[in-house]
């Protein structure tokens, strides 16, 4: 029995290696370019849909907003950081402020850690923007929440930079329902 080991001992010794092998085998293909793995393809399509939607929204052309909305809807199931909800809120603002729809979208995005959503909620309650009356308590809550985000800990974008980005995204005046041209 000198060179033989009980099977339970071999299991204990090699279990960490087996578990590690299983975990890397399931996640590595998603990150590997040209892997053809479904999860990798889904990530690529998500990034593409988000990029296209952002460009269409930034164009300021009302005719592009329907496609931007469809791209955001398609990207929604793969969104983990609130980016889709933020851009849906931005799209609604640009279409004509629908506050009862915008605020819940921004809240959802902020809860997911989307820095621009937190900055926009600060703007909403500090100025006020989209609402009738400022609420300094809520504004302060969002400013403090920003400091707890990963991006704030890394230093980029800073709270001020996020506010500037939000202001740039909102620079084009929203189209009011009475100004929309129906075809």
Describe the structure.
This protein has about 180 residues and is mostly helical. The chain has one domain (about 35-180). The chain has 9 helices and no strands. The protein has helices spanning about 5-30, 40-60, 65-75, 85-95, 100-110, 115-125, 135-145, 150-155, 160-170. Helix 2 (about 40-60) packs parallel to helix 4 (about 85-95). The longest helix is centred in the first third of the chain and has 25 residues, at about 5-30. The chain is globular. The N and C termini lie far apart (about 85 Å).
Brief sketch in words of this structure:
The protein has helices at 7-31, 38-58, 65-75, 83-95, 99-111, 115-126, 136-147, 150-154, 159-169. The protein has 183 residues and is mainly alpha-helical. Helix 2 (38-58) packs antiparallel against helix 3, helix 2 packs parallel to helix 4 and helix 6 crosses helix 9 (159-169).
Keyword list:
183 residues, mainly alpha, 67% helix
Strand composition percent: under 5%
Residue-averaged pLDDT: 82
Q: Helix count?
A: 9
Spatial gap, N to C terminus: 87 Å
Number of domains: 1
Radius of gyration: 23 Å
Order of helices and strands: HHHHHHHHH
Identify low-pLDDT runs. Answer: 5-27, 174-183
Structural class: mainly alpha
Helix content: 55-70%
Overall strand count? 0
Cα shape = globular
The description of the largest β-sheet is: none
